[in-house]
Structures are given as structure tokens and as C-alpha cells.
Amino acid sequence: MPQSSAHSSERLDELLSWLDDNPVQAADVYLDIRAALIKIFTWNHCSDPEGLTDKVFDRVAAKLPGLKDSFEGDPKLYFYGVANNLIKEYRKAAILHVSLDGVDGPTDPSLAVEEETREMRGDCLDQCLQVLTPEKRALILDYYSREKRDKIIHRAEMARSLGVSIRALRVRMLRIRAGLEECIERCLDQKAKNS
Question: How confident is the model over 57-70, as pLDDT tens digits?
Fold first, then answer.
């Protein structure tokens, strides 16, 4: 069952309240954990450190109702434990992965399905971007428009031009992205029902 944007926002608020009772401090802790996780995944030569970091937060958020009652100690340690498990999964998948570059073989029908899914996801992204306000759409597209070192410099410039800190910009983008992801999931579910 797809989750609403409000539900996603509630999960984020619940996660932040678990990190600290003070919302400003919670946002700082969140961003510190995020930066540390990206470094950990980078140091472990993972190809998508930001994507894996998002996956850590998704897994922790999914377990949050039970964690509040059962986990004692610094929440950062729980995030690092989940990251460690993801690194193990990543390495296991990398060992099992065999490159087929330059090898001609029979066409895999699942590749056609994968391509169709990618196209549907792109269509849903386009639709969901149109639902955003023009300001939010411009912000999110601008935020993700660069790569590597240019990305860091550009995001600092964005924050400066908006008159906010980098941390505040990241939190704003996180909220927009969460709503966008929920919209995409709803769209994909609808397309699946219609096909």
C-alpha cells in the first residue's frame, strides 16, 4: 500500500524526534549522521554512497516504532550498525556480480521489463514534478543538477542565495524529495493496476 506524503513527513518527524527532542538539534544530528554515513560508504568504495545512506534512513525509519522502546544509547550507533550491514550486503553482491561486458548472449526478457519499468518511473517522475509548486520544482531540479565537486560548490551557492545554511537547505530538499518519492510510488502503483 503506497504511503501518503503526509505519512512520509510524519515518519521523518518521528525519526527527528527520536534523534533529539529539540527540532533544531535533531536536524543537526540528522545531517551529521547523514554526512558520516556518506563518508563511511565512500571509504568502503561503494558506488552510490548517497543512495545507500538513504537506504539506511529508510530501514531505520521502518523499525522506529520498536526502536523507541527497545534501543538504549546513542541513536547514531544504530545507524552505523545498519550501514555496516548494508556494506556487507554490497560486498556480497559485488562478489556475486560477474561482468558480461563484451559477451554476446541470448536476450534476457527481464531486461525488456526492466527497461519498461525505468521508462514508467521516468514518466511518473515527470508527472510528479509537475505537481510540485514551481518554486519547489526549480529548487529540487537545481539541487540535483550537478555532480562531484561541482555539486558541493553549487549547493553552497544555492544556500547562500536562499539565505539559509547548507543544513537547512538539505532538510528542505529531503522533505521535497520524500514527497516526490511518495508521489512516484503512487503513480507506479496506479500504472501497475491499469496494465
Answer: 989 988 888 887 78
pLDDT digits (tens, 9 = 90+) for 85-121: 888 888 887 766 555 555 555 555 556 667 777 888 8
Q: Greatest CA separation found in the chain?
A: 58
Determine the Cα–Cα distance for residues 186 and 37; give it in Å rounded to an integer. Answer: 29
Rounded-to-integer distance, Cα 139 and Cα 124, Å: 19
In order, the DSSP letters of 6-71 are HHHHHHHHHHHHHH-SSHHHHHHHHHHHHHHHHHHHHHTT-S-HHHHHHHHHHHHHHHHHHHHHH-
pTM for the predicted model, two decimal places: 0.49
Task: Give 159-195 as a 3 state SS string.
Answer: HHHHCCCHHHHHHHHHHHHHHHHHHHHHHHHHHHHHC
What three-state secondary structure class fits 136?
A: helix
At 1 the pLDDT is 32
Please tell me the distance from the alpha carbon of residue 191 to that of residue 44, in angstroms, as a whole number: 37
Q: How far apart are CA 66 and CA 53, in angstroms?
A: 21
The residue among 176, 117, 186 whose CA lies nearest residue 141 is 176
